[in-house]
Every structure is written in C-alpha cells, then in structure tokens.
Amino acid sequence: MTISMPLPNKEVLARRAGIVAAMREIVPGEGVVDATNEMRVFETDALTAYRQLPLVVVLPDTVDQVAAVLKYCHANDIPVVPRGSGTSLSGGALPLEDGVLLVLSRFNRVLDVDFENRCAVVQPGVTNLGITRAVEHAGFYYAPDPSSQIACSIGGNIAENSGGVHCLKYGLTTNNVLGLEFVTVEGEVVRLGGKHLDSEGYDLLGLMTGSEGLLGVVTEVTVRILQAPETARAVLIGFPTSEQAGAAVAAIIAQGIIPGGMEMMDRPAIRAAEDFVHAGYPLDVEALLIVELDGPKAEVDYLLGAVEDIARANGATTARVSTSDEERARFWAGRKAAFPAVGRISPDYLCMDGTIPRKELPRVLAGMKQLSEHYRLAVANVFHAGDGNLHPLILYDASRDDELQRAEDFGADILRLCVEVGGVLTGEHGVGIEKRDLMPEMFSEDDLRHQQRIKCAFDDKHLLNPGKVFPVLHRCAELGRMHVHRGQVPFPDLPRF
Ligand SMILES: Cc1cc2nc3c(=O)[nH]c(=O)nc-3n(C[C@H](O)[C@H](O)[C@H](O)COP(=O)(O)OP(=O)(O)OC[C@H]3O[C@@H](n4cnc5c(N)ncnc54)[C@H](O)[C@@H]3O)c2cc1C
C-alpha cells in the first residue's frame, strides 16, 4: 500500500463509544453498524487494494437524519465519508478509521416520474439502471450508462460525474442532471435547480457534480430522461492494429458523425470478454470497435454504411452489424463486462482512467507498450474511444513481491503520459485517493489553491471525505502560504499524510 491516508485523530478514536451512541439516537433501529465483522463489507470500494474499517457505519433513511448526523460530526470534529454503492474505482468511498461512513443506500426510492417535463426525481441510493427501469415502460431511459449501472447509485454518479458508452452523444452525468438537494457539513439542506432547464445564480449544480463527496451529501436528484430512439444498431469492426482502429475513430468524428456509442478494446480485453460473455467478438483481430448508431431508421441505415466505409478505408478487416435488439445487447454485454472479464484472467488489476485528445491515441498506445515492458506487467485496454477516455487495466498479483507497487508506478506513468499529450488525469472515475498524489502533475500551485478555496467555502474544517482528491491536507487558514510542487510541500513539520 503506497498511498497514505491522514493519520487518525486519537482523540476522536477515544470518543468512539459516545459517537456510536449519538448516532443510534439520530438513526434508531438497524441503521447504525459498529460490530467489526458487520463493518467488513464496507471496508473497501472497487479500489480493493485499499481497505480500512470505519469508526462506525451509519445508514440514515431521512434527510433530517442526514442533517443531524452531519451537524453532530461538524460540532464534534468527526470526519464523514459519504458512500453510495461502493463501486468507486478511485477509492473515493474508502472509509477512515476515525470517520463516520455515511451510507445512502436506504435512500432508494423513485419519488416522481414526470414524462411531460422529461425528468425523474429520485433518491441518491437508486441505482443508475433503476432510473431507466422506472421509465422504460413508456419508452424512456436515462442516458449516462456506466458499466457498473446495475449496482452504482445515482448519488455516486453525481459525485464522480460518471460516464458510460452512450455519453459521447448524450453527455456525462453533469449534462443530464437538472436539480439536486444536498446537505452541507453543517447540516443545512440546500436545493439547486429543479425540473426547469437552467438553474439560477452561479452554476452550483455544475460545481456539485464531480465533487467526490467533498462539498456536501446529495439527498435528492432530478435527472433528465430521454425518449428511446426509434432504431439503434451496433456494428462490430475488427482491425489488424489498435493504431488503425484509433485512426478510424478520429475519421468517423471528423466526418461529423456522432455515434450513440463508440468503444474500443484491444486483443487481451476482447479475448477476456468473449470467454466470459460469448458476445460474438472476432478473435483474430488486434483491436475491436463497437459503434452504435441510433435515430430514425433511414438515418441509421445510411450512417452504418458511412461508418463501415470509413473503417474499411482505415484497414478494417471485419464488420458485423447487429440484426436484432438482442444481438445489439449482446455486443454491448461483452464491453460492459470487460472489467469483471479481465478479473477472471488475472488475480488483481488496476483500472486507470486517463483522457487524451483522440489523435494522440497511437502515441499513447506505443508509450503504454514500452511501459508495460519496463514494469514487466501486462495491460488490457478498453476505451471510450469516441471521448478519448482510456481504461488501461494493469494486470498484477498482489500476493507477489512488489507487484502492487509496480502496478501503481505503471499506472502513474500512464496518467503522466496522458497529461503530457494534452489530456487529463481522469475521465470519469474521479481522483479519489488513486490519483490524489498526481494532482500536481496536472495542476499548478495556483490551480490547487483556488480549488481548495472552494472546498473551504463549503467545509472549512475539512471534515467531508478528507484524504481524497487534494494531495495535501491543510487548514483553510494556510491558503496562500502553501506551495505544492510535484507533491513536495514546505512546512514538512505540519501533520500531513
Ligand atoms: C465493474 C465496474 C465498472 C465501472 N464502469 C464505470 C463506467 O463505465 N463509467 C464510470 O463513470 N464509472 C464506472 N465505474 C466506477 C463507479 O461505478 C462510478 O464511479 C459510480 O458513479 C460510483 O457510484 P457508487 O454509488 O458506487 O459510489 P461510491 O463508490 O459509494 O462513492 C463514490 C464517490 O461518491 C461519493 N458519494 C457517494 N454517494 C454520495 C452522495 N449521496 N453524496 C455525496 N457524495 C457521495 C463518495 O464519497 C465517493 O467519493 C465502474 C466501476 C466498476 C466496479
């Protein structure tokens, strides 16, 4: 374990029994979990290399309870880690030894479906797919579709600004949220936006979306729902090299075609997914594109032809168009199961999440190949190709010597490469703890200071999800005196992590 967390406050640990009793008063019944064995299920999220039991787990089911928990923790200087379904790949929901883990999974009701206004109001613990399930009978769906959609919560999606295969055309979470209710660390309930298009005042809705549980706890979400397209068809296109597939992606977009989804997988990912799901993927290619076109039938037919022509001009050797909705779903099932599929061929993997300008794909792929040799670790690649969002999966075995360390160093170098070619550290999985210490690679001292000023405006005691996102924990009063350069901070005598 190479990423360190804030040292627990011994004074808070000493008050544990009193804190648990206070939580039980606020959330009666079975909503407080403090037995070690029962808390084990919460000790990690999907960044499973990191584990930590929380001080106590609290599962409120009313907004008043959330507000009371936060108010108590604020008054008593107790850190709080919000948690949805615990599928974060960046360690965003990793508990703290001296912190309350505030789990929102009991907030699982769809409150209102408003077809006339094309929106749904839901509680934050509703799963992403649960929203589509609630509206599909009338031909509607919720567009952002992370591969974890069967499990991840909409509250977690808001916190991570999650994406999915359909975000190329329909936007990320931030483009599909109309309103939020959240509770501040001091226990104040705030409402932003609503069913209408634009929210008043500063774009606080935009600020909250992607704030990784550092600014407030989301307790209600209003999302846009879309009418399902008349037709949707997907085509599997195989290429002899990833470079050719990357060039085809750039050419499709350059032609002005915005597919409903455009994903790419390399040979190891194709094989793992095919073995797992039997999606019908070709096994004799180095790279596979899955391109979905949706809209009126005539348009879809025309665009399928255009995409195939572009792909062939870029060296595609195979192209197979789905002939039914079942087949299209099967094509996607392979891609959506790519992470668990890779989990079957390697004891452990680290899933990276950098984003690059599309045209840099060949350069980054070549760089990744060299790094793979340097670190002696294999990598399987899955991309949201249309968005330039890479998900290299670094395969390692945590039980062997220094493999976790090598995997983390390899991952850090991939992200550095993404930044070097003009990209960013994260596309959709968030910074969490995973990319926290790489923030100075991307942001200047000024950038980080301004970001932390925003954090201080919401949470001046740094009690909400401390140890995540920002590479240095410090008191808000220090702002302006802090110089962070490539992770090296002055005032090393101050307690840091
Ligand atoms: C197999 C697999 C595939 C995945 N595929 C994708 C993908 O395609 N696209 C993608 O974007 N992500 C993907 N993810 C990552 C993950 O599912 C998303 O980040 C998701 O949004 C996390 O939701 P969650 O409910 O599990 O949140 P958690 O993991 O519980 O928490 C994530 C973060 O959100 C905060 N949070 C949670 N709920 C709240 C709340 N109510 N208020 C304030 N903060 C809150 C937490 O503090 C934490 O920082 C995948 C994960 C897995 C395991």
UniProtKB/TrEMBL annotation:
GO terms for molecular function: FAD binding; oxidoreductase activity. Signal peptide: none annotated. Residues 50-228 form the FAD-binding PCMH-type domain. Keywords: FAD, Flavoprotein, Oxidoreductase. Pfam families: FAD-oxidase_C (PF02913), FAD_binding_4 (PF01565). InterPro entries: FAD-bd_oxidored_4_C, FAD-bd_PCMH, FAD-bd_PCMH-like_sf, FAD-bd_PCMH_sub2, FAD-linked_Oxase-like_C, FAD-linked_OxidoTrans_Type4, Oxid_FAD_bind_N, Vanillyl_alc_oxidase_C-sub2. PROSITE patterns: FAD_PCMH (PS51387). Its cofactor is FAD. PANTHER family: GLYCOLATE OXIDASE SUBUNIT GLCD. This is FAD-binding protein. It comes from Aureimonas fodinaquatilis.
